[in-house]
Each structure stands twice: as C-alpha cells, then as structure tokens.
Amino acid sequence: MPTARNVLTPEALSMMEVIARTGSFAAAARELGKVPSALTYSVRQLEDALDVLLFDRGSRQAKFTAAGEELLNEGLRLLEQMEAVASRVKRVATGWETQLTISVDGVMSRLTMFELCEAFYALQPEGTTGGPGTRLRLRTEVLAGTWEALVRGHADLAIGVGTDRTLPAGIQMLPLGDLPFVFAVAPHHPLAAIEGVITDNDLLRHRAVAVADSAQHLAPITVNLLPGQDVLTVASMQAKIEAQIRCMGCGFIPEPLAREHIAAGRLVAKAVQRPAPEARMGYAWRATPANGPRRTGLGEALKWWLKQLESPATRKALIERHCGLLQQGLD
C-alpha cells in the first residue's frame, strides 16, 4: 500500500489544484490529458494513503470534504514553496530569479508600475537573450494586505506599505513618500451644500464608502469610519471613487487620485471637522541575511527594482501619476 510520503507528490498536489479550479473530475481529466478513470484512480490512491475521504461522494460536482480543503490549501502552499526553492537554486546559478512577485497597494500608480515592467523586460543581461528570464507577478492588495503578502512569503517586494510597522527579521523597508487625502462628495450630495466645516454629526447622517482590507490573516485596517455610520464596502479605491461620483456615499480619497475628478467637477472637496489623514508610504522587501548589508544575497531582478525605487522621480510618480476614471487591478 502506498504511503503518504509516496503519494504526496507535486503532481498529486497539482492534480488537486486542477480539480478545484475546473470544478469536476471530467474537466480536470481533460486539462491533465488523462481519462477520467485514471484521475479517479489517482484520487483513490491519495485517499487510501492518507486514510481520509477528500471528496464528497454524494455530490455530482467535485466537492471537497473538510480534509480535502485542508490538503488543497496546504498543497498550494507547498507548491509555492517548491517554486521558491527552484527560484533560489536558479538565482545561485545565474543570479536571476525564476519569478519575482510584487505586491502593490491599489493606490499606487498603475501607469508607473507598467512602465517599470516594460523597462524590466527590455533588459538584456550579459549572456542572455530575450530579456532577464524572470517572470513577474503583480498582486494588487489593499491596506494591510500589501504588507501581509510580503511577510507571509507570497511576495518578494511590497510597494505602498505603511511605514509605521515593526520590521520582522529578514524584512527591510525604505520610505516612498507621503500620500495626502481629501474629503470629497458628488456635487449633488447633500453634504456638498453645507457651508463651512462638516462635523462628525453631519457625517453620521450619511453613508460612508470604505475599501475592504485585503488581508486574510493580519488584523484589517479601518480608517475614518464613525461608530454607527452606514457603510458601503467596496474592493478597491477605484471602486470607492466610482461609488462617490455616483453619490452612493462620502469619504476620504487619496488627493492624487481625486485631483482630476475634482478638476472636472465630478467630485467636490469639502472641509471636515476631523483631520484629513496622510499616509506615510514605504516599500519593503525580503532581505538575506536579515541584518546584513542592504543588498546582500538578493537576486538580480529584485536588485534592479530596488535600484529604480531609489529614484525620487520614480517614488513620486508611483504616488502622483493617476489618470482615467476607472483603473482595474493588476492581478
């Protein structure tokens, strides 16, 4: 009888991921180039070795049991770690990572990020053809989610994190710049007609629009919401701006993102009793060794990105350069 060690292979874990993504054994078999009976046999081998049921046999779809969900989640984590090992091995041999994952807060300039990506792909390192050979993966996160992606090992570089954090071992951070906020509403919103300063009592009578923190494990960050205030929660800052333009609520918006909408008359900036927030943003990366020189042990791709972020013009552009009414996420 096969043991758990013999059956918990990368192929088996990948099989679980394909079944979860496609939603059925038949679809998974087609993607994997197998007949359904062969896939079912592989699943039964896995179940026998682990002595658990991974799928609900009473469901017509590929429905995971609790044990199956746990194996899927842990399997995905192990596959990510295997990719990280492969990347480190390649870095030792060539200096260039197999993959570089960058976690970017949604308030950073998408235009600037893609210009940096274009410049990265245009590199021609000595002894290579067709660019550096490092796959880039960009993740759009919100608030604490940007930091969480880095500290939990899902990203190598995080752009747009709050600088008021205690750095764990192996993480280094430098300042990016200050991001001011402005309180804004649609011109036809009731708060737009108030003369003078808007008080907290005024705000309590109106719905706020908030962006959901994308952190799954760290404590989520909540900013400038009053107890008892009605709240519409959206997934991104761009969606928040859209909601406020449509007069669905009110709230603080990063001034660089609000600027063009205020100039065009789609939003009106208002003075409020509570002080407008100003976020001190930074960028952070995984460093090796934890307390060594700033670039020691880093791969060439990460070193290139850190070099770009040393430029004051690049840091300012990441905060300031925003255009277009709606900007979709990076990932």
From TrEMBL:
Keywords, alphabetical: DNA-binding, Transcription, Transcription regulation
GO molecular function list: DNA-binding transcription factor activity; transcription cis-regulatory region binding
TM ranges: none
SUPFAM superfamilies: Periplasmic binding protein-like II, Winged helix' DNA-binding domain
Keyword Transcription regulation among record annotations: yes
InterPro entries membership: LysR_HTH_N (IPR000847), LysR_subst-bd (IPR005119), WH-like_DNA-bd_sf (IPR036388), WH_DNA-bd_sf (IPR036390)
Family: Belongs to the LysR transcriptional regulatory family.
Listed PANTHER family: HTH-TYPE TRANSCRIPTIONAL REGULATOR, LYSR FAMILY TRANSCRIPTIONAL REGULATOR
Protein name per UniProt: LysR family transcriptional regulator
Organismal lineage: Bacteria, Pseudomonadati, Pseudomonadota, Betaproteobacteria, Burkholderiales
